[in-house]
Amino acid sequence: QDSGLYLKELIEPVLTCFNDADSRLRYYACEALYNIVKVARGSVLPHFNVLFDGLSKLAADPDPNVKSGSELLDRLLKDIVTESNQFDLVGFIPLLRERIYSNNQYARQFIISWILVLESVPDINLLDYLPEILDGLFQILGDNSKEIRKMCEVALGEFLKEIKKNPSSVKFAEMANILVIHCQAADDLIQLTAMCWMREFIQLAGRVMLPYSSGILTAVLPCLSYDDRKKNIKEVANVCNQSLMKLVIPEDDEMDEAKQSMTLPAEPTSEESISKPETASSGESELDITALNQPLSFPRSSERIQVTLNLDGIVQVLDCHLHDTSIGMMTRIAVLKWLYHLYIKTPRKMFRHTDSLFPILLRTLSDESDEVILKDLEVLAEIASSPAGQTEGHGPSDGSDVRPGPVELHVPARAGQLSSSGMKALECSPSTPTMNSYFYKFMINLLKRFSSERKLLETRGAFIIRQLCLLLNAENIFHSMADILLREEDLKFASTMVHTLNTILLTSSELFQLRNQLKDLKTPESRNLFCCLYRSWCHNPVTTVSLCFLTQNYKHAYDLIQKFGDLEVTVDFLTEVDKLVQLIECPIFTYLRLQLLDVKNNPYLIKALYGLLMLLPQSSAFQLLSHRLQCVPNPELMQTADSTKPSAGFKRTAASNIDYTELLQHFEKVQNKHLEARHQRAGRAEQLDRRVIL
């Protein structure tokens, strides 16, 4: 009965024998300890740590008899712990944390079995100490033994059930980085299990997980590009990504950085223990917003913690993933979705990072995937149209991305006048569609990209510009590009770019409204736009004529065609005339073809078309236009009672107050520049040929 008084003297000599080289002695020591524990029962609990330490060694004993004896003692000790309510968990956790990192299979099995036992005892709250052992559990999950992996899965599953039942008492923050590490594990089971835990943590803890967003994204984003072999991991990672994104709210843009001293540490290591922060006052508005975002109805003290979004860390991770050319398409799309989401929710803070993000966003336009380009354009359009870009104290930096030459990074006066008309496209833009300081920079750098990557212009140029016209104000885009191209030093590129823009203007359904605006030239804005486009369109003679056809400036079109006799007629030039003839037969120019019926009031239209006919050689385009002009009726047969009245077209032209003489002079000036440039190129080519011959 008094054995409890002498347990230290009884146990210690026996435990010493556990280390003896003789297996028989170790066996009898195990048997002796079994009898001592059997008699003493609960009195041995103060000595539990030394008993556990000795048993953990015997669990890996090479002798089967010793191992068998240790298992009997182990079961007895588990029964005593289960029955007792005096187990010292606090004193045991340091030993458990140390032994859980053992690489021996039997020792791991022994550890897991004890964790399962302690989990099952109602009076023992092992959940409070889960941060101490979670990392070790995930390492055991990667064991080669299927049995041990299964036991560890069960233990982790039980912990997760307990977390879902009592989320208010869970130390989410202390375990966040442990999960981040194991979400990047090479072992599929470890990665999937950690990702499932991460999903639950984000959904249960809510904004408490925000300070760990950069680490979570580092782990989650690469998983989004996994193939079907890792479909489960990919699906869970996608849920994690979506749930984390929803935690970012507009209030994050307004939080004062001074509050950071009251918040959780941004990225603590897994070994740091985080003391419970004081709860914020119940009157804070953030509580209500956070509560609305949570799917669960029970209150959680962790939700009341003032959390600051670590935006710098998130942007750094996103930027790093965009620079990594080896990442998959779905990951790149997710990164761009995150950037777009952050610009929508926290524009003021995001614009501090715009200068560093801008170059990589522009480079992403060369991506192979149309989906990636679409998302990239959404981000760039938001940057270019967000009001936060205007209120920023500093403008965009004029670094290496700015076009060389006389172009400056400012919105020109003419383009500035159009910002009011940009309000008409409110439905097309994610934010207020005004041109901020980044809009013009975007247009400059986009044209620079097209100039340096001609393949991008050929394959994706039209696609990119059409999408931008949907996302931003089309009038602003064409006005600013025309203004930039007017000062373009590479005349060959300017001509190619004007041709591309003209084709988009004439054929894209997205620009129907802009075409109608130019067709009538009723407003000062439309006439201003026409003059701006005309000056740049002069880089390409045939596109200039097509612009005049679109705006119903038929007399000026005829005057231009008369000047074509002074130009150098090349194969490319005739090809463009051929394409213009094809366009005249398209639905876009239906109104022009109908005006051919009014011969008396549209003589210059007919003259201009005959002028094109005279430029063309005997080709299919010549036959097409010739047949069309043969259909023009005899003016005598078309006489009507009101034929003496002036036409609406002449009224419009008279009221437009456009100096067509000055425009014609500008056309000649630009074409002379192109002629000089061609001669210089030809001269350089001739010199090169001579060098080759020599």
From TrEMBL:
CC annotations in GO: endosome membrane; PAS complex
Annotated Vacuolar protein 14 C-terminal Fig4-binding domain residues? 454-632
Q: Where is this region: Disordered?
A: 257-286, 385-405
- Where does the record place it? Endosome membrane; Microsome membrane
UniProt keywords (A-Z) are:
Endoplasmic reticulum, Endosome, Membrane, Microsome, Repeat
Superkingdom of origin:
Eukaryota
Question: Which Pfam families has this protein been placed in?
Answer: Vac14_Fab1_bd (PF12755), Vac14_Fig4_bd (PF11916)
Give the matching InterPro entries.
ARM-like, ARM-type_fold, Vac14, VAC14_Fig4p-bd
One GO biological-process annotation of the entry reads: phosphatidylinositol biosynthetic process
What does this gene product do? Scaffold protein component of the PI(3,5)P2 regulatory complex which regulates both the synthesis and turnover of phosphatidylinositol 3,5-bisphosphate (PtdIns(3,5)P2). Pentamerizes into a star-shaped structure and nucleates the assembly of the complex. The pentamer binds a single copy each of PIKFYVE and FIG4 and coordinates both PIKfyve kinase activity and FIG4 phosphatase activity, being required to maintain normal levels of phosphatidylinositol 3-phosphate (PtdIns(3)P) and phosphatidylinositol 5-phosphate (PtdIns(5)P).
Q: How does it assemble?
A: Forms pentamers. Component of the PI(3,5)P2 regulatory complex/PAS complex, at least composed of PIKFYVE, FIG4 and VAC14. VAC14 nucleates the assembly of the complex and serves as a scaffold by pentamerizing into a star-shaped structure, which can bind a single copy each of PIKFYVE and FIG4 and coordinates their activities. Interacts with NOS1.
**Entry's family note:** Belongs to the VAC14 family.
The name on file for this protein is Protein VAC14 homolog
Q: Which organism is it from?
A: Pygoscelis papua
